[in-house]
Amino acid sequence: MPATPRPLDLVPHRRYNPLLREWILVSPQRTQRPWQGETSKSAPIASLAYDPTCYLCPGNARSGGVHNPDYKSVFAFDNDFPALLPDEQPVPAPSPDDSPLLVAEPERGICRVLCFHPNHSLTLARMTVPEIATVVDAWAFETAALGERPFINHVQIFENRGAMMGASNPHPHCQIWATEHIPDESLRELAAQQEYHAEHQSCLLCDYLATEVTQQARIVVENDLFVALVPYWAVWPFETLVLPRRHLGDFTALTPAERTALAAILKAVTTRYDNLFQVPFPYCLGFHQRPTHGQDNGCMHFHAHFYPPLLRSAEIRKFMVGFEMFAQPQRDLTPETAAARLRALPDKHYAD
Ligand code: H2U
Ligand code: ZN
Q1: At residue 322, does pLDDT exceed 80?
Q2: Mind giving me the DSSP string for 295-346?
């Protein structure tokens, strides 16, 4: 006789990620022991508003010698060490004896850096909503300006926050890489959304959001225009997905009210992250937008992913090793538990 099914928070199971079309293994029985909340000490918040040695602070010389202006809000510049160049860099044609398995092709692009604020010690969590809204405006401006370039097809905006995530500098900033080709991760999400639309005549993320808003179990924080949730298929322990309630494709489509609402959600999520272990929480934040020349036929639902590595304290992080490297992602903490813990945290930053 088949055993009576037990709830998903008790049994090992796998969950499907319909955006990337891959599975994730969830092993909640490994967290059955009561949470003893390893007490990490509160980390000091950086207090230096201006660092004379910082490459990104107003007025300072960058490593290539160029001086930053004495900027008062946001400041964007072409990366001095760009991963891509805007001019065609021809690659050698294959020779007759080359294997068809050795494939290379040229790739053009433009890399930019955007400083969020002149104050070296701030983070998104500790900026005001109007200040973050100015950053959202800059993301929209950069997306539009880069997207107008005929050879640019995709604009990837991302923030590496914290040394643990490889940020080279604590000054609040992000990177923008605009590329000729749509990168694989975006392409996979786009293909999934296009195929879902063809099959259901509706948007994958609109349908998903409706389910999450009904169930509430994985919602972290919501306002009138945006929702932040731990996705059903989250890989990172406290991963979140930020979705506009309205179906729209990129930063440029956001109304002024949506820009403010996005700023408020980003502040609410990053504040809860910092409050979780009472440390400046490391993460990678990335936005997925539609390709710049409308190659998505309107199927792409703009969104942001937060991928934070911390698991149990300021020091104990999740590593993507072993089974994750060789087989598939795995987690112990259920997305529902992660969402409940984030949801229960105060809106007020622990350092304020
Ligand atoms: P990360 O912290 O995510 O590494 O971003 C910082 C970027 O700033 C990095 O790509 C660039 C680096 O190339 N940079 C400059 O363009 N000029 C500088 O003087 C320092 C850093
Ligand atoms: Zn600085």
Answers
A1: yes
A2: TTTT----EEEEE--BSSSSS-B----HHHHHT--EESS-HHHHHHHHHTS-
